[in-house]
Design a protein that fits this description.
Layout lengths: L18 H8 L9 H14 L2 E2 L1 H4 L8 H9 L7 H14 L3 E9 L13 E8 L2 E5 L12 E2 L5 E2 L6 E6 L2 E8 L2 E8 L6 H13 L10 E3 L6 E5 L2 E5 L6 E4 L3 H10 L9 H12 L2
Antiparallel strand pairs: 1-10, 2-3, 2-9, 3-4, 4-5, 6-7, 7-8, 8-9, 10-11, 11-12, 12-13
Helix pairs in contact: 4-5
């Protein structure tokens, strides 16, 4: 592990993190030096293997962020999670490999009205490397970063799927992605370091507050190669940058459970709570 700086993300019980199990889960083999090449490979394998999903919120289950709970759910589950779960798990792996990682927070702009200001309810990471400073993020659903981005503004940066760019205004950064020929805002952030306790507070709001979108709609995503695959409520969207997009609708809880298992590799929780939530989504109740 790299020496800790006061601003770096301090994760409880980091020494108990099972790095070998994480690397096996994402299919990574070989040496893992703390380099940009390793960061790129691990980030890509992470988002391509561990799905983004909010089933716990829909089932009214608590979302624990301690590493033991995250490993049980996302490494041994097999389940996925949302931004705090993904990026805390990712940060733990990076720190165990010797990367210098700082936690950051963002305001979501994706699909939001242009004049709205939301809370800082998204987590991302800053990674300091010999090659420079990069941002990394494995937990933004259908627009999750396929690779780290240099903390440099004003130009497009290639990733394994779409190009992204960072724009700057004063001390604020704005992340955008180019999809279908248009630049779309993803989120805005600054470089104020965040700690585990900050994420616990934000995660509680996202998972438990009655008005949180994560308690109202179904959101699942995991890319397959360059194809984006996302499930929003009962609609599945498949988008390949080099081909046409496809949409499919599902009409039953059984169909939703089937697509969660077969397309996203999610072993959805059994029981009446989740089934009732999925039924509400299907009926619009």
């Amino acid at each position: 592990m790299a020496p800790q700086h006061p601003d770096t993300l301090q994760l409880p019980d980091l020494t108990a993190f099972d790095l070998d199990a994480y690397l096996a889960r994402i299919g990574y083999q070989g040496e893992c030096p703390p380099t940009l090449a390793t960061l790129r490979e691990i980030q890509w394998r992470h988002i391509s293997t561990i799905p983004f999903e909010n089933l716990s919120c829909l089932a009214d289950e608590p979302v624990a962020l301690d590493l033991a709970a995250l490993q049980a759910k996302m490494i041994h589950g097999p389940r996925g999670g949302y931004c705090f779960e993904h990026n805390i798990l990712f940060a733990a792996a990076l720190q165990r490999l010797g990367f210098v990682v700082t936690g950051l927070a963002a305001r979501v702009l994706w699909k939001a009205p242009a004049d709205s200001t939301g809370p800082r309810t998204h987590m991302l990471l800053k990674v300091d490397l010999p090659e420079g400073t990069y941002i990394a993020d494995t937990g933004f659903g259908g627009a999750s970063l396929p690779g780290p981005l240099e903390l440099a503004t004003g130009h497009a940066q290639a990733t394994p799927i779409e190009p992204y760019r960072l724009l700057a205004k004063a001390d604020l950064f704005r992340l955008e992605v180019e999809m279908r020929g248009e630049w779309q805002p993803v989120y805005s952030f600054d470089l104020q370091p965040q700690q585990f306790v900050d994420y616990e507070v934000a995660s509680w709001f996202v998972s438990a507050h009655p008005t949180s979108r994560f308690r109202q709609v179904l959101m699942v995503a995991r890319p397959a190669g360059r194809r984006r695959q996302s499930l929003f409520n009962a609609e599945l969207k498949l988008h390949d940058p080099d081909a046409r997009s496809e949409r499919r609708q599902f009409g039953s809880v059984a169909e939703l459970r089937q697509v969660l298992a077969e397309l996203f590799g999610i072993e959805a929780p059994a029981g009446a709570k989740l089934d009732a939530a999925l039924e509400r989504i299907l009926t619009g109740a």
